[in-house]
Amino acid sequence: SSGINAEYGGSYDTNMDIWGGENFEISFKNWMCGGYLYIMPCSRVGHIFRKKHPYTFPDGNGKTYSMNTKLVAEVWMDSYKELFYQNRPSARFSEIGDISGRKKMREDLKCNDFQWYLDNIYPELHIPKTTQVTISQDGWCLDSLGGGDSLVGLYKCHRSGGNQNWKVDSANKKVQQNDDCLTIMDEGLSLSDCQTGNMNQQFELNTEYKSLYNSYHNVCLTITNPRTRFVSIGDCKLQQWDIKDV
């Protein structure tokens, strides 16, 4: 149960539409504004989804969810909202309207900042020190091509984020999308579960030499067949890549 009375801001954000994101919003607000969440170990809760929504999304499910979660990020996450945008770049363009009322509510309630939440409520959460980049050559961008078990390849750069935005974790030498890492396979490069110590997933981004380098195999990202636009690894002197921050 939530420890904040609706009279003092415990109700849902009425700027949100239909469904999605309200669980984050009310949880952040609860913890950051002096409330509590109690776990009842002997309780049983069932959540059964219907076969279809009893309501519709006029703007589409994805667009609505993007707008709602952007509201959460802008009101509650402070500078950490940039991590949200790195993972959902299209949300930058979502229209969320006037949020001054929600920010004033947060100020009136004397809520803690998001850093306090991370330090005191969820200190075990790992905050990645990453940069977000696109990796391209002659107008063709490194693209996950939908992810899954498919190989990574090149697709015409569209500058809309998504499959063409890559998180570079320099500390752990990983290049990621969501929870998957760029991985050297026999047939090329693919995305697979990130694994500590997997040398086939260790890549270093060298902006000076414009390369994506794997030191274990001493190879770099290359285009193996320009016609198919699939990529692999090879001699580091062969190709240079245009690496840009998002």
Give descriptors for this structure.
24% strand, alpha+beta, 12 strands, 246 residues, disordered N terminus, four-stranded antiparallel sheet, elongated
Question: How would you portray this structure in words?
Answer:
The protein is built from five helices and twelve strands. The strands form two sheets. Strands 1, 2, 3, 4, 5, 6, 7 and 12 form an eight-stranded antiparallel β-sheet that branches. Strands 8-9-10-11 form a four-stranded antiparallel β-sheet, with no helix packed on it. It starts with 21 loop residues before the first helix and ends with a strand. It is an alpha+beta fold and 246 residues long. The protein has helices at residues 22-32, 61-76, 81-87, 100-108, 114-120; strands at residues 130-137, 140-143, 153-156, 166-169, 174-177, 180-185, 188-193, 204-206, 211-214, 219-225, 230-234, 242-245. The protein is 20% helix and 24% strand.
Mean pLDDT: 83
Low-confidence spans: 1-7
Oligomer: single chain
Number of strands: 12
Tally of separate helices: 5
Helix content estimate: 10-25%
How would you classify the helix and strand content by structural class? alpha+beta
Order of helices and strands: HHHHHEEEEEEEEEEEE
Note the gap between the termini.
40 Å
Binned strand content: 15-25%
Broad shape: elongated
Gyration radius, rounded: 22 Å
**Main β-sheet description:** 8 strands, antiparallel
